Recover the amino acids of this structure.
């Protein structure tokens, strides 16, 4: 079984990914810095969860494009 992500994390990540798709990649640290810039008043734990979920979505997206 995988980790459970809240609807807040998923919706925030998808909104950021839709608005700034070309800026995000598969690197968690780079995505974390981008989330800090785009949403400066976000909590640390939520920021990390959003950045991690974006990294996962981008990795899966690139994986399906390569097939």
């Amino acid at each position: 079984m995988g980790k459970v992500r809240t609807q807040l994390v998923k919706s925030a990540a998808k909104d950021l990914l839709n608005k700034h798709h070309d800026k995000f990649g598969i690197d968690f640290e780079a995505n974390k810095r981008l989330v800090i810039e785009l949403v400066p008043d976000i909590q640390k734990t939520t920021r990390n969860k959003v950045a991690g979920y974006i990294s996962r979505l981008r990795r899966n997206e690139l994986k399906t494009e390569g097939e």
Summary: The chain has a mean pLDDT of 94. The helical segments are 7-19, 28-38, 44-66. The radius of gyration is 12 Å. The chain has one domain: 7-66.
